[in-house]
Amino acid sequence: MAAPRSRAGGRRDRLMQRAAGPANPCPPGQIGGQYRPLADPELRAIFDTALRLLAELGMGEVPDRLRDDLVSAGAIETDNARLLLPRELIEDAVAAAAKTFVLHGRNEARSIEVGGERVHFGTGGAAVQTLDLDTGLYRPSTLKDLHDFTRLQDTLGNVSWFTRCCVATDIEDNFDLDVNTVYALMRNTTKPVATSFTMAEHVAPIVQMLDIVAGGDGAFSKRPFLKAHISPVISPMRFGEDAVDVVYACIEQNIPLSCITAAQSGATAPATLAGFLAQSLAETLASLAMVHVIRPGHPMIFSNWPLVIDLRTGAFAGGGGEIAVLNAASAQLSNWLGLPSGVAASMTDAKAVDAQYGVEKGMTALAAGLAGGNLVYESSGMTASLLGASFEAFVIDDEMHAAIYRTLRGIEVTDETLGFDAIREAVLGEGHFLGHAQTYAAMERDYFYPQLADRDAPVTWAEKGAPDIWQRAREKARDILQSHWPEYLTREQDAAIRASFPIRT
Question: Does pTM surpass 0.90?
């Protein structure tokens, strides 16, 4: 009989190690694609219907400059002012599209590669209300909130990129709003970031700010660390002129794009899920064709976000089985076409951090991850059907994403992990696996240990005051905001920006 293996280190060292927890065994970028809600013939049927919509119905309200570019590439003008996009044009756009590319962080170690079936959770949204840390009630979002949210997420390892999650409602001027939004991102994080531009005329001046941060004139465009969120298509099946102008301006500055389609079931898209997917896919393909005729292969996230409304009231519904399966199917369609996919999840309708919050966020985020959504937007910090953003939600969602990444990582089956010898030693030796070398190795390699989720015995939980996760998350968020004050802009950079732009802080 083999002798039991010795236990390395003392009991005190082991307890300290367990309390600290191992390194993250399941970082962002895990592989999705295990969940496929659509069979191959269904994928083909939806794609063919999308192509037919573009070829036979086409797009309306096409701005003149884009109309000329599309016609030069083979689009067909009609008597009713719609522009038909033939199958060949769409197929050429898909073939030429960037299939993978890097979203740069100012800190290169924080850059992420987009494409394939790698999954990254991040942010999005334009919440106009913030769940106040002190009152637990909603109030209008402010520029200070945006700075604080950016500082907070800078410490969260499962937020792969940061898009401004709230609108500074205390800034009325659109240019000042765009400028101060980007400044908040530059000051408080070195992750890949994203923003939106209210007008095309705002793009070039803001790139001047980004050049100051990057190190000189033209430096940003050589290694862009900010991408633009744009919705150039308005459902159903027409372009939006202002957003199209922003697309041209961003491509001129070499800014990567997330072209977002956000149709709503039963309102701006069919209520049937298959019909919804066909129209929404057609609209996102129209965005891709637009980018293709401006600059073939320009980095674009194929952001097809199916959104759901409650047909009883007309209200947007961010959580539920329909939105979970629709966004999973959207990710599957995009990956099937070989395009970098962007979908939306974790958009709970709950206002409080409660059971509804947990169910809706967990269900929709897991479905999007398992389907292989490359970038899962809105998945951190959002509440109240995207009307609200929450500091507590950011830290809770970060832990949820770690658990989802662990699910995506799956189970490695090898001779070592099957552990025949370890089982034999335990059965014939001490009768348990506690303290075994294989157990310690697995603890480091295979398990994620949450810091917020409660795993205490009921009596211990009661002795601690019976806290819920909202309370624990509030304390963690406060600790981060009181201690994390990054200085990602040098004094010289900050002074140069303030000398040229109307910075409000």
Answer: yes
